[in-house]
Amino acid sequence: MPHIEAVTCPVCGCLCDDIRLRIEAGKIVEVKNGCAMCESKFLGYCGEHRLSKPLIRKNGELVEVSLNEAVKKAAEILAEANYPLLYGWSSTSCEAIRIGLELAEEVGGVIDNTSTVCHGPSVLSIQDIGIPSCTLGQVRHRADLVIYWGCDPWSAHPRHIERYTSFSDGRFEKSEWKGYLSKTKALIVKKKIEKALKRVFARETPSLSPHVRREPPPTLFKEGRKMIVVDVRRTRSAETADYFIQVEPNRDYELLEALRLLVRDEELEVEEVAGVPVAYLEEVADLMIRCNFGALFFGLGLTMSRGKMRNIDAALSLIRDLNTRTKFTIMPMRGHFNVSGSDTVFTWQTGYPYAVDFSLCYPRYNPGETSAVDVLLRGETDASLIVASDPVSNFPRKAAEHLVKNPLIVIDPHVNATAQMGDVVIPSALVGVEVEGTAYRMDHVPLPLKKVVEPPEGLISDEEILRKILSEVRKIKAGKMEES
Amino acid sequence: MIVLTPSRQLPFPVMAECISPDVFQEKTLEEIGELAVWEGNKQKKLADLFKVEEQNREGENEATITICGDVAEVRRIGASMTIGEIMIEGNVGMHLGEEMKGGKITVHGNAESWAGSMMKGGTIEIYGSAGDYLGAPYRGCGEGMRGGQIVVHGDVGSEAGAYMKKGLLKIKGNAGQFAGLRMHGGTILVEGNCEARAGACMTEGKIVVIGFLESVLPTFTIEGVRNKVKIKETDSIEGPFYIFSGDLAERGNGKLYVSKRKNPHLSVFEKLL
Q1: With a CB-CB cutoff of 8 Å, which residues 79-98 of chain A face chain B?
Q2: Chain B interface with A: residues with Cβ < 8 Å
Q3: Whether B218 and A254 lie within 8 Å, measured CB to CB
Q4: A108 and B CB contact within 8 Å
Q5: Which of B220, B248, B251 to mutate to test the interface with A (most CBs of A within 10 A)?
Q6: Shortest CB distance from A380 goes to which of B13, B140, B269?
Q7: What SS3 class is residue A179?
């Protein structure tokens, strides 16, 4: 019964690299240290939704073909296209992304990764303002104030709090896990007593007392690690926090700008900003200034709400202002396990992190003009290659309609909505489970993805498939050159 | 006068910075037709996409280009132009008049995003609506409009006049959010309504909103009420207007003039005067 230690989990941007797997008869049978999403990936990777054979659409039906035939068909589509789109990339290895970029340059297409629909605005702001950041190890050992803004790590990055922030035991800062447990127990007891008292004396239906007080509680100024959550609704992470600030939807920009003024000890003329009294904000600003090492993590609640990249401008500027008074860092909570890697590989190959247009034979970058959703909404593409992504199920309807109207090539391990609409579908082996590779964690630390089991017969990695398509495209282009 | 008419539908992006009076000057029709443009990832001649004709009418400047038809996918028309006039009878694509220094562009239709991007001189008049980033620089650049005038008769999208330093932006319709973002000078006049966050991070310059303004950022401070505001040396608008100063988050001293009559929700600021 072999065990494999220190496996990197290929699910979210945390890239937890302490996973322990037990393998029996070439199958994963037990997962240790992982969250629910990690277990689901490692135990259910070979389920009924797995693609096993290459498919080509003939007479409206997807029929099984050989890998070579599928590769040739894909290469023909891409070589003929006037403005192809190559999209996805965030759930595959850096090695495959590198080949994808080479292919995009060869076919003169637009190549974009999933940043375009998640942290693309963060990237644009970072280019404008700059980012004072650090690795997650630094946060784990040193951060005494952690702020989660517009994100819910308890649900989306389940081990983030446990491994890197409030519940992690760092060298200089201790875990607040025990404090959280006793707080939760005390609240449960309090609720039970309240209910009992009301039943006995008032015979009223008891209303639940608010879990987190609206004004900053005195415990916020205690020694040790503190956690603040800012969000439009009380999430699971907010329940865990020492203080929860409920911001009015789409008013994050105003709140961040107000905090910028307050950390400079200036006064505001209004009494409330985005539904939060200024008196409470003053206390939060005071806490931010007084911490030794603060870390702000932000998610799509900030990047995709009204204001988009300008919300991030304000957040980055706030951290810049705070760094004149204390040490503060900021980091986006990246979603897909290698979305940071795709940005990194795109940047080192082309100079730009996403939405790169090779149609003029050199890389151009202008999100809004060269980004996948905008290109599709304007109906400019005439063919698409989708790698390890499912845009049909999450792009705007009009964009998805244009995507499936033209020849569509899909490389994916699973049968998803995009694969079902594809004209050429090529199954691939799962990176981080059946093939190895490299991925970048959300703090831009590269980590190796391990091969833990053999892939199903006939399946090869995204990298190998892309190499085959690239070689075929080059052959077609060379043939055309000879003809002309 | 050169007249360009699209000879077919243009589904792919066309990069045509060659459509400019500076480039067409002293060229024959054949030479103009031979100019290189990109359609998608293929390089083509201008004559492959447009019918190129010459029409001489009395009183018309020789350095005039007229485009008859929808060219919503044709980008960078009039880029860096210094003289002459371009008239477009239809919708036009992105980056119209990018970095133009002189001359005039008239659009009898809508213009896509980044119209008048980083312009330094000349005039752009759009009779329809304009997209986002009107007069604003491209990604990563911190220098917006540095001169000239843009007049839009319809509505504009977000971030009109971002990073503006000089010049005038006249919007007769409504403006999107973040009008005048990070502006360092110049004037923006919004005759219609304006979405929130006008003047965010501005340090200098003037934004005048005659219609309804959704809200004023908390980082602006009220300075007073004025009866009229000057737009150009000879042009002023009757108020009364609330005057806000900001953006204090950037230690700015830009001015935001908001019509008192159309914005009763801002009367709460009067108690601070």
Answers
A1: 81-83
A2: 11-13, 15, 38-42, 73, 94, 113-114, 132-133, 138-140, 142, 177-178, 181, 197, 200-201, 215, 217-219, 221-222, 247-249, 269, 272
A3: yes
A4: yes
A5: B248
A6: B13
A7: helix
Mean pLDDT of all residues belonging to chain B: 92
Decide if A254 and B94 are in contact by the 8 Å CB cutoff. Answer: no
ipTM above 0.90, yes or no: yes
What is the per-residue pLDDT for B58? 64
State whether B181 and A310 contact (CB < 8 Å): yes
pLDDT tens per residue, range A172-219 = 988 888 777 777 788 788 888 888 888 777 665 555 444 444 777 877
Q: How far is CA A89 from CA A111, A326, A342, A364, B68, in A?
A: 9, 38, 6, 19, 42
What residues in A contact B243, CB-CB < 8 Å? none
Which residues, other chains included, contact A243 with Cβ-Cβ below 8 Å and sequence gap of 6+? A212, A216, A217, A220, A226, A227, A228, A229, A284
Inter-residue contact B266 to B252 (CB < 8 Å): no
b/e sequence B35-72, b meaning 16+ C-beta within 10 Å: bebbbbbeeeebbebbebeeeeeeeeeebbbbbbbbbb
Other C-beta atoms lying within 10 Å of the C-beta of residue A155: 12
- pLDDT of B132-190, one tens digit each? 999 999 888 888 999 999 999 999 999 999 999 999 999 999 999 999 999 999 999 99
Low-confidence ranges of chain A (pLDDT < 50): 208-213
Interacting residues of A178 by C-beta distance below 8 A, sequence separation 6+ = none
Residue of B49 and B235 predicted with greater confidence: B49
- Counted residue by residue, chain B has a size of 273
- Tokens representing B83 are 């003289």
Question: B132 to chain A: which residues are within 8 Å by CB?
Answer: 368
User: At residue B257, does pLDDT exceed 90?
Assistant: yes
Residue A1: what pLDDT?
Answer: 58
Q: Is A45 exposed, middle or buried (0-12, 13-18, 19+ CB in 10 A)?
A: buried
**Which pair of structure tokens corresponds to residue B13?**
């992006």
Chain B residue with the nearest C-alpha to that of A358: B41
Which candidate from B142, B181, B248 shows the least CB-CB separation from A266? Answer: B248
User: Which region, left, alpha or beta, applies to residue B207 given φ > 0 means left and ψ of -120 to 50 means alpha?
Assistant: beta
pLDDT value of residue A22: 94
Provide the pLDDT for residue A211.
Answer: 41
**SS3 call for B109:** coil
High-pLDDT (> 70) share of chain B, %: 98
Q: CA-CA distance, B219 to A139, in Å (whole number)? A: 31
Q: Record the tokens describing residue B146, joined without a space.
A: 């540095």
Contact B63, B71 (CB under 8 A): no
What domains can be seen in chain A, in order of their start residue? 49-118+337-483 (3.40.50.740), 120-332 (3.40.228.10)
Residue B151: name the closest of B189, B184, B119 by CA: B189
Report the alpha-carbon distance of residue B48 to residue A269 in Å, rounded. Answer: 61
Alpha helices in chain B, H assignment, sequence order:
21-24, 29-33, 46-49
Residues whose CB is less than 8 angstroms from the CB of residue A127 and which lie 6 or more positions away in sequence, other chains included: B139, B140
Per the CB < 8 A criterion, the answer to whether B215 and B244 are in contact is: no
Element (H, E) at A397: helix A397-405
**pLDDT value at position A210?**
45
Q: Does A324 touch chain B (CB under 8 A)?
A: no
The answer to whether the CB atoms of B217 and A270 lie below 8 A apart is no
**CA distances to B64, B100, B113 from B76, in Å:** 17, 10, 11
Contact A358 B218 (CB under 8 A): no
DSSP of A441-453: -TTS-EEEEPP-S
Residues β-bridged to residue A295: A146, A329
